[in-house]
């Protein structure tokens, strides 16, 4: 069964966002003669992709080729400039953990807020709060504002919320390591469990051995385009051959 479909996805971004949004800075940079007009760059270039239920897909490619951007488009964190994204089922985005939190409100309120963002109802989230706090080991922090947590605690909270319910689709940026040693083990176990089940998984990684070992399919992204797709072994081999050839020439 098809669970993700991307139809002709393209995404443009400004390369100098800071200039266009900070008026004072823009003004100063004009005075100093340093102002450059924001340049737009094509980050994803006409991507078509179909993912079926239960597939484990590795996404590889050079730095800046658009891998994280592609994941964010699939999760709905970024809207493509053109094209269609269709996703069926609950998605657990394990990327930029905690980026959606409001630092001023309590851990408990953030759990509710984030859960609703992920598509769960408030009633459902109310039932989940305790198990989330327990997994994140933050029971004593329920009423404390998120800004008072350490960055590791914030990541733990983000991980616990996204994975508390069994997701249909798991999206991971880089092999995940969250929190201290004991939490790392706990979170890895939870991910391994999803890996062994029918969960659809998309993972970005530079660890090609890991991709070969854990994924059945792979996608090689190159300058925002899908260069090659197929079995994980074939894609990794093709990628390595091309990279090595470029190094030797
Ligand atoms: N917030 C942003 N604003 C503008 N451009 C961005 C932003 N984030 C990323 N980009 C640009 O988008 C392109 C793709 O970035 P992306 O993070 O998707 O690459 P990646 O393949 O995941 O790279 P890496 O392997 O280094 O993690 C890069 O050229 C980057 O400069």
Automatic annotation (TrEMBL):
Domain ABC transporter stretches: 28-248
Q: What GO molecular function annotations does the UniProt record carry, in alphabetical order?
A: ABC-type transporter activity; ATP binding; ATP hydrolysis activity
What's the superkingdom here? Bacteria
Report keywords, A-Z: ATP-binding, Nucleotide-binding, Transport
Q: Name one GO cellular component term.
A: membrane
Family as reported in the entry's similarity comment: Belongs to the ABC transporter superfamily.
Instruction: Give the protein name, as stated in the record.
Output: ATP-binding protein
Q: Which organism is it from?
A: Nostoc minutum NIES-26
